[in-house]
Structure formats: structure tokens, C-alpha cells
Amino acid sequence: MADATGNTLTRLWSDTSSGLYHDYHLVASEWVVTDRINAAPGQRFFSWDEFFDPNSSYGSDNFSQIGRYNLSNVVFDKEASGGIVVDGHASGTGNGSSPSAAQDIIILRNGLCSSSCAVFVEMMHHEAGVRNVAVGGRPSYGLMQGPGRSRGAALYSTSQLDTDIWNARHHSKRAARHLPHRRKSLFVTSASFNLRNLRDQVRRDNTTMSLQFLYEPADCRIFFTPSTWYNYTNLWKYAADAIWNNTGLCVKNSTSQDGLEPDRLVYTGDATEIITDSFQQGFPPIIREEEMFGGRHDLSMIQNMECTTNRDCAAPGHFSFRMVTTCHDENERMVKSLCVAECSSSKNCAGAAFVASHATHPTHTTKKW
């Protein structure tokens, strides 16, 4: 099926180049290879057969020649990227300089990186030398991968494949004999999310193993802390400290061999200073650890008045009816219906119960024993 589709659409693109056909969208098709670079000689492929002729196999699987994008082709650049032309390729006028040195950049990942993200990180890390920090993962020490999902080079849906087969069958009766009937053999409703990896990604120095089968640990791994979980400004500062200031923030045994020094202090606590003005910068306000994990708070603003409805609590201070656990004596607890002051944080309650919910509609109240 791949051979028939590729042969047909590659020939169709050749007709486009010679003026016999006028669909320049084909230049970015995965089945057109004469505008791609053969990695071995560094020249364009002459035909689909040259590209598809297997040069290696693993078990019963055959693999094509290794190809690269021809970014000097302006038509390809625009069609493949929505109009973006890579600076310095098509015109040759790029200055080739980076606004930041690789040692001044870090990439922070949480394991969900895949597809285009994995391709980008691969080039930044292995081509440019940018260091990676992974955050989170299982509650254990050791290495962690940043790109934890698919690391193929082309994500393809059944819907796209269906369109390509229709195009090939429409333009070649010969190809139609080798391709499935769309309505009888391949048609799948709502197939846009039926995805597969169409093309492998390999490194220039290791062309025998595709990246989705390689273990790729980050240079440093860090755990989430209460101050970094709720505030990304803190998280980025923590990651920066781990790379540039205090390698002891990296999880034990989590630094890769070619990254940070393995002989460093084991992380024992959150050494990163809390940022106090994040709310003014547009980030969520800081929630301190003692507020998140301080447990129960003193309940001192209970009116000594039992009630059955909110109407019974119509008093200044926005009191409302709640079922509250109280102390009957040192050894006995009781649940009573009392008027309780509503609050939204432990600071503005002045000793009242801290209710972690909307300010006007608290859901529960507890007492510290």
C-alpha cells in the first residue's frame, strides 16, 4: 500500500514541477520524496523507488533510505509549515547567530513531551547542546525521561491516510489495483484520532536505532514541592537553581552521565526562595506550605447559639449554619448545628475555621484538638 501510494504521488508531483499538474500542496506530502535529501550522498532522491528500496531490515520489518527535509526549497518550507521559511536556508542571508548561548538555556519537561515537542527537544539537546530538566515522575529516586511519549517524526491519522489513498486511486488505475477500497476495506468513521507513527526519527551518528526505542534521561530531575506545584514561577526558578547554582536540588542518582557531576549533595529540602510578588506579575498568588498542609485550624469564632438554618444566623460578620464538631469535654466530641463565621483563608479568619472553598459558601469546618 505504501509503495503504490508513494509511487503515484511522487510521479504526480513530478508532473506538477513540469507544469502538467497544478497542486503545489503535494510538495509537503509524506509520499513525495523527490524534493527530499538522501542523507547518504547528500543529494535529492531521483525517484520513489530509490527512496523505498530497503537498505536495512529488522526481523520481518523493512526500512527505507534515510531522508532529510530540503529546507532550501522555498515552496516546501511554505507548504510544510504554513508559510514559515527557516532563516538562512531559502535565501541564504541568515546571520547564523543565536540570541542565547546553549549553556544559558534549559528545557523543563514533565514527561508528557511527544511528537513535535520531542523533535524540537531532540534538536535543541543533541544538536545545540541545551540541557534538560525533568520534573515529577514516580515517587522514587533515579533518572527520568523528559519525552515520555511518542518520539516518531510524523504523526499520521487514518483520516489522512484515507485521503492519500483516494488521491492515488483517483490518479492511477494501476495503483488502484494495489490499494484498498476506501468504503469497503479502510473506511473508519471519526478516524481523526486513530493515529500512528508514519516516520521514524534517527540521529546522524546512530542510524540503526529510531529514537522511540532509545532511553533518553534528562540531565537533572527534580521533585515537585508545595511551592513549585502551585506556582510556575517558583518551578522555573527551582529548575534554574538546580542547573546553575545548586546541583544538590537534583534528585539522588538522577543526573545523566554527560550532564551534571554525579558527586553532589543529595537534595534534602526546598532551598529555593519563595517569590512574593507573583500575583502582581500575573501568576497565581503564593499558597504557603503551612496553609496547604497545616492540617486543622483553631475554631474560635463560633457563636454559642445552636441553629437549624442560615436564617437563624442572621448576624453581622456573615455567619452561616454549619454542622460542626465540637468538644463536649476532654474525652468526648459532639456534632452540633452552630452559627459559624465564613472565611476564605487562614489569614482573614482571625482564628476562625479555615474553609478551603468559595468565600461565601464554605463546605466544611474542623477544629484542632
Secondary-structure topology with pairs:
Layout (H helix, E strand, L loop, with lengths): L1 H16 L19 E2 L4 E2 L3 H5 L3 E3 L2 E3 L3 E2 L5 H8 L24 E4 L6 H12 L3 E5 L18 E4 H14 L1 H4 L5 H5 L8 E5 L20 E3 L3 H4 L2 H14 L43 H5 L8 E5 L12 E11 L2 E10 L28
Parallel strand pairs: 6-7, 7-10
Antiparallel strand pairs: 1-2, 1-5, 3-4, 8-9, 11-13, 12-13
Structure explained in plain terms:
This protein has 369 residues and is of the alpha+beta class. The protein has three domains: 2-100, no CATH class; 101-153 and 200-293, no CATH class; 295-369, no CATH class. Helix content is 24%, strand content 16%. It has helices at residues 2-17, 48-52, 74-81, 116-127, 158-171, 173-176, 182-186, 226-229, 232-245, 289-293; strands spanning 37-38, 43-44, 56-58, 61-63, 67-68, 106-109, 131-135, 154-157, 195-199, 220-222, 302-306, 319-329, 332-341. It has a three-stranded antiparallel β-sheet, with no helix packed on it. Strands 6-7-10 form a three-stranded parallel β-sheet, sandwiched between helices. Helix 1 (2-17) crosses helix 5 (158-171). The chain is elongated, with a radius of gyration of 31 Å. The N and C termini lie far apart (72 Å). The model is unreliable at 257-287, 291-303 and 346-369 (pLDDT under 50). It comes from Talaromyces atroroseus. This is Tail specific protease domain-containing protein.
Features:
369 residues, alpha+beta, three-stranded parallel β-sheet
